[in-house]
Write a structure and sequence with these properties.
The structure is a single chain. The chain has 333 residues and is of the alpha/beta class. The chain has a domain at 41-216 and 282-295 and 304-318: HUPs (Rossmann fold, 3-Layer(aba) Sandwich). 40% of the residues lie in helices and 12% in strands. The strands form two sheets. Strands 3-2-1-4-5-9-6 form a seven-stranded mixed beta sheet, with helices on both faces. A two-stranded antiparallel sheet has the order 7-8. The longest helix is centred in the first third of the chain and has 28 residues, at 2-29. 49% of the residues are buried. Belongs to the PIGL family. Residues 234-303 are annotated as: Disordered. Its EC number is 3.5.1.89.
Length: 333
Amino acid sequence: MEVAGVLLCLAAAVLAWGLLRVWDAWERMKSQEQAGLPGGGSRALLVTAHPDDEAMFFAPTILGLARLGHQLSLLCFSAGDYYNQGEIRKKELLQSCDVLGIPSSSVTIIDNRDFPDNPAVRWDPGRVADVLLRHIELNSIDLVVTFDAGGVSGHSNHVALYAAARTLCAEGKLPKGCKVLALQSVNRLRKYISLLDLPCSLLLARDALFVLTRQEVAQAQMLQLQKDKCRPQAVNSHLHTPSVKGGAQPATPKSQLTPRGEASFSATQGRAAGKRASLLGPQPCVHHHLPRGRDPSENQDLQNCVPVAHPSVLQWKELPESADSGNKDLALL
């Protein structure tokens, strides 16, 4: 009986500790204390590789930052022209940003041969860093948010953005006071267990965590509905296309992975996802960093986040200052 009593006390203590941690993380999530985020009115820049990244991966962050009073802008490094639908996807990006509260005047789309929408082409991190730094300086950006080393889906274009941000941090080139947050990648199981993962995310959150409110969930779901409505002819014109990137839509109803592991889904699946989201709510897609010092290429859990619905929870890790050089450097968890 004494042993049972001791075990019961230990279990109660652990439970109480966990509840306190969850409560503390929840309170921090609602304040500016996350990762020392700059106050309301500061300029936050979302850096993406393709049109649809903002909806597939960053909707909770965009809405969360807007809720905290940040002035949002977006820099997209390609027009998403992998399947010759660049013009369509540019318009979709502007429509998506309008739903998310980013004015079209604050959206910059780079359509340059140096940054093709192609998972087989590695963008030059130095070239990306130069363009990114120039944009940050010209627009007086205080906060940059982008992908981490895993790129969430492992897409080489996503990873190139991370490499560029890492270069700017490591070399101390960012303007004084400018912070960088990297979206954390997690395994497939945690991406799709929905709200069951929320307590775990709250416990593991270290720098910033964004969770959508009910109203913001509905706002994010509008993005999928818009995509379903604005491309009725694109489906018929690509009946023989085996798979496409998240923004484009082929006729096949099954989710696929291209040889490069690029997320792809069909028009049928996209419509089904929109209906499922309306009935069941969004499926959270929670992202974390790898353990410190671990090579992202060795992580077998880095899988694509196939866009079956909009994520409602995103976790971030700040790129902190280097203790050795005094410059900012990237630290993987």
